[in-house]
Write a structure and sequence with these properties.
This protein has twelve helices and 21 strands. It has 430 residues and is of the alpha/beta class. The chain has two domains: 328 residues, ANL, N-terminal domain (Rossmann fold); 99 residues, GMP Synthetase, Chain A, domain 3 (2-Layer Sandwich), CATH 3.30.300. Strand 1 and strand 2 form a beta hairpin. It is globular and about 70 Å long. It binds 5'-O-[hydroxy(phenylacetyl)phosphoryl]adenosine. 5'-O-[hydroxy(phenylacetyl)phosphoryl]adenosine binds next to helix 6, strand 7, strand 8 and strand 12.
Length: 430
């Protein structure tokens, strides 16, 4: 089902022509109204009228999250203050937050994109969406909320955490879809199991939208299996409205990125050079329709690749692969590089492994991986746990080439955060 079939299935040539017009307009607005971009473009030796083809995007300067912090609070705003309609912020791990402004039109367009995403997964009027993301400065809940209302769903603004209340709402109002981080979805599945609730029998749940943090295909499978639902991957970032940038359709093979609103490139994260289509690298996005705070060539730091083949659903907007990590998340332990996602990938495949884990780095280069085991998989025999522990250690060593200390802990004993999961704690004294 389509929200806007004409746009979603637009011929590639028409889409490219639209993108070029919008790119030219965005560059012009940035140069006219944002001193930061005027200076950056001058330094790069490029003027708006020199953007004649989509390839010319490569001549434009990059924007980084450091630039956003340096321009905090409003150095990147491109419209008069009276046209600002909403503020969101994104905190990240260090220092000042990033402030993201929306005009009235930006708020509407963000909701429109969510509406496309939701219909793409087969929901319709009459569905009940329980929004378990954090309401507030984070984009995750509000942007989804507005889009879901636009589609005509009944939206329950539950917010995160408090699993007892989530369950109560789910039961009393027959929730059919929920929106949550994958880590909370797993935690909630565990909670239901502990309560003796069988979601297939006792609840009306059919689908979930999971996003805002990296997760593997194995984690998706675990969520789907534990809750008896279809889970769709949802990608976005505050700098580009929040959720609704790229989303899976019913095929669940990569996420359609809305190319009439965002121009995507994949670059080599080290050299900054564009990668050929299909190659893995860092996703760089230029907003094509944002009014309040347009961004040119924003370095997302997210690692993915473009899927060039057309999708069976008929949409022509290209898909990106599941995000495998962030270029700044890479860990170096005892001289070996790897991504935290590789650990998750291994863990979620081992029978007997539960739904939460935590990697801690201490001292000079000691690495401990705490892993919850499942209630069902543990029969009280300690030697079974020891065997599981050895098995996990071996599998991790084979994948990341570093031998960690593995500690098995009971289900529900590792911390669960209300927002994004923190999977790695680095306390090294290097
Ligand atoms: O997390 C927006 C969002 C909310 C997306 C709800 C989906 C659902 P930020 O807080 O600015 O915005 O964080 C953006 O989160 O650059 C990625 O590193 C990561 N991220 C978001 N979605 C995914 C995903 C929101 N599906 C940053 N897979 C991004 C992997 C994701 N990483």
């Amino acid at each position: 089902m389509f929200w806007d079939q004409r746009v979603e299935t637009m011929e590639r040539a028409a889409l490219a022509a639209l993108q070029l017009r919008q790119l030219q307009d965005t560059v012009r607005r940035c140069s006219e109204h944002v001193a930061f971009y005027r200076q950056k473009c001058a330094e790069a030796g490029v003027r708006p009228e020199q953007i004649r083809t989509l390839e010319d995007v490569h001549r434009l300067p990059f924007t980084t999250s450091a630039d956003l912090r340096a321009q905090y609070p409003d150095g990147l705003v491109a419209v008069d203050r009276q046209y600002l309609a909403r503020l969101h912020t994104s905190s990240g791990t260090t220092g000042k937050p990033k402030a993201i402004f929306f005009s009235r039109g930006d708020v509407d367009r963000a909701a429109e994109l969510i509406a496309r995403c939701l219909l793409m997964t087969g929901v319709r009027r009459g569905d009940v969406l329980q929004n378990m993301m954090t309401y507030g400065l984070f984009t995750g809940a509000l942007v989804m909320h507005y889009g879901a209302e636009k589609v005509g769903l009944l939206v329950i603004p539950a917010g995160p955490g408090n699993s007892e209340r989530q369950l109560l709402l789910m039961r009393d109002f027959s929730t059919t879809v929920f929106h949550a981080t994958p880590s909370y979805a797993l935690y909630f599945a565990d909670f239901l199991e502990r309560k003796g609730v069988d979601p297939r029998r006792d609840l009306a749940l059919r689908k979930a939208y999971v996003g805002a943090e990296p997760h593997t295909e194995e984690t998706r499978a675990k969520i789907e299996q534990a809750l008896g639902i279809d889970a769709y991957n949802s990608y976005g970032l505050s700098e580009m409205n929040g959720p609704g940038v790229a989303f899976e359709c019913e095929q669940k093979r990569g996420m359609h990125l809305w190319e009439d609103h965002f121009l995507m490139e994949i670059i080599d994260p080290v050299s900054g050079t564009p990668q050929p289509e299909g190659e893995r690298g860092e996703l760089v996005l230029t907003s094509l329709t944002r009014e309040a705070m347009p961004l040119l060539r924003y370095r997302t730091r997210d690692i993915t690749s473009i899927i060039p083949e057309p999708c069976a659903c008929g949409r022509t907007h290209r898909r990106i692969e599941r995000i495998t990590g962030r270029s700044d998340d890479m860990l170096i332990v005892r001289g070996v590089n790897f991504y935290p996602q590789q650990i998750e990938q291994v863990l979620m495949k081992v029978p007997g492994v539960g739904r939460n884990y935590l990697v801690t780095l201490r001292g000079l280069d000691e690495m401990t991986v705490q892993v919850e085991f499942t209630e069902a998989g543990f029969d009280g025999q300690v030697d079974h746990l020891v065997r599981l522990q050895n098995q996990i250690t071996e599998k991790l060593r084979a994948e990341i080439l570093v031998k960690p200390k593995v500690e098995l802990v009971p289900p529900g004993s590792l911390p669960v955060s209300e927002g994004k999961a923190r999977r790695v704690i680095d306390q090294r004294v290097l």
